Amino acid sequence: MYFTTDGVVLRETAYRDADKLLTVLTFDQGQLTLRARGVRSRQSKLKPSCQLLAYSEFTIFENRGKMTVDEAEPKRLFASLRTNLELLALASYFAQVAELLSQEDSPSPQLLQLLLQSFHTLDELGRPQALVKAVFELRAACLAGFMPDLSGCAVCGRESPEYFNVSDGQLLCEGCNNGSDGLRMPVLPGTLAAMRHIAGGERPFSFRLGGESLRALSDVAETYLAMQLERGFSTLDFYKSLIQDKGAAI
């Protein structure tokens, strides 16, 4: 049986002499494991479409539960992500998160759309890496079922609290903060406004933020996603090592 689907390559693994096993997130099929025969050879026409982070149209042959790439055409290759090591590392982190959050036979169109928007924003729009990273992390947490309660203080209801409890996803004001359990992180007014915008889901990248508010958003979003998923990511560790080394060099 043949079928066609669009998807992003989240992971590639060398297989046998010249093949690859691809983990691909698709709009209509969820996560798929595909075998790309001969793609590691120089002559392979599949090579551009089957590389990490490529968004491609795949024609797939399925037989006895195993799927092989028959044809593939690239739709977006996000060229600048491949020439900048920081951007490549950050995009690879997004792909690793998406792989964890997606499943076979369970379409994740919103997650794939978020991934493509994040790649596009890094590739062409030149937005700060910290902002793109924070938007992806917080929005991914929401799509995974960890929607935080950002309406107001969880205790007294005040609309502009000063803290966010990343353990349970709730806001707390100064007066209510002392009696709560879990890890609490400070949020500035600009940070909170950005969090509410991102959680709302509509055009999540359509805001600007800088300075201390952006640094607070970056810290909160990264910590919240990691705590809810209860794991770390090797790609994130590598990305952070790159930006730390860059800071040290400057």
* Spatial gap, N to C terminus: 56 Å
Report on the biggest sheet. 5 strands, mixed, barrel
Radius of gyration: 20 Å
How much helix is in the residues?
40-55%
* SS-based class: alpha+beta
Element string (H = helix, E = strand): EEEEEHHHHEEEEHHH
Give the strand line-up of the largest sheet: 1-2-3-5-4
Count, helices: 7
In round numbers, the mean pLDDT is: 93
Query: Looking at the structure, what is the overall shape?
Result: elongated
What does this 3D model show about the protein?
The structure is a single chain. By secondary structure, this protein is α+β, with helices and mostly antiparallel strands. The protein has seven helices and nine strands; from the N terminus they run βββββααααββββααα. The chain has a five-stranded mixed beta barrel with strand order 1-2-3-5-4. A four-stranded mixed sheet has the order 6-8-7-9, with helices on one face. α4 packs parallel to α6 (211-229). The termini are far apart.
Give a nutshell description of this structure.
The model has no long low-confidence stretch (mean pLDDT 93). Helix 2 (85-101) packs antiparallel against helix 7 (234-249) and helix 5 packs across helix 6.
What keywords describe this structure?
7 helices; single chain; 9 strands; 5-stranded mixed beta barrel; alpha+beta; 40% helix; 250 residues
